C-alpha cells in the first residue's frame, strides 16, 4: 500500500498536468490532528476546475487509471453542477475526489474547518485557517431539540414492541437499529458534549464514543444492540429504556431542561403489557 505522501504527490502530479485543475484541497480525517491515523483513512480531495459545465472528466473516465486499479466506484452529481467520484482501489487506497467550480473557491474553503489547500495555481492571496475540527463539535441542544429527541426516544419504542409482537422482524429491527439507536447516539453525543463544555468531536455516528465514555457506560451502550432473537430484543428494548432514562435525567438536570417522566412511565408500562400479550389476543388487556 502506498504511503500518504506518495498518494498526495500522485494527486498533485495529476493536477499539475491538468490545465483545467487550478487548485487542490484536502478535507476530512487526514487533515484532522485529533483523528486516529490508520491505513483505512480516505483521501477527501477537491479539484477546483475551470468550466464546471465541461463534462469531459465524467464522459471519458480513463484518467482514473492514473491512480490505480479500481475495486468499485460511485459517481454522484450535485445541484450546483459539482460532482464527485468515490473510488476504492485494489491497493487499499480510497479517494473521494470532488470537482468544483474554481469561481466558488473562496466560499467553499470556508464551509469546512477541516480544509487544507495543497495546490493553488492562481490565487496567491487565498489563505485559510489551520485545519481544525471545531466545525464538527457536538452542539448544545436547545430545549425544543431536547424535548423532541426524548419524545421520539420513547415514542419509537411502541413501534419496536408492536413489531416484535406481530413477528414483523424487518420492521422491528429497522425501528430499533436505525431510529431508536440514532436517538440514543444523539443522547450520548450530548452527554459527552456537556462533559467537555461542547468542545468535542465524537466522530461520525459516534465512532469515537469509546474514547470519551467510561468502560461501564460504553459497555451499557453496546449491550443495547439487539440480535434477531425476540426474547433478546425485548431485553435490549428495556435496557434501552433504562439507558435513555439515565442519560435523559442527567442531561435534563445539567441543562436545566425537563425530563419527560410521564412519557417514560407510560411507555414502559405499555410495552410491558405488549410483551405479555398473547399472540392471538383479541383485546388489549
From TrEMBL:
GO terms for molecular function: nucleotidyltransferase activity. Keywords: Nucleotidyltransferase, Transferase. InterPro entries: Aminoglycoside_adenylylTfrase, NT_sf. SUPFAM superfamilies: Nucleotidyltransferase, PAP/OAS1 substrate-binding domain. It comes from the Bacteria. The keyword Transferase applies. This is Aminoglycoside 6-adenylyltransferase. It comes from Tissierella pigra.
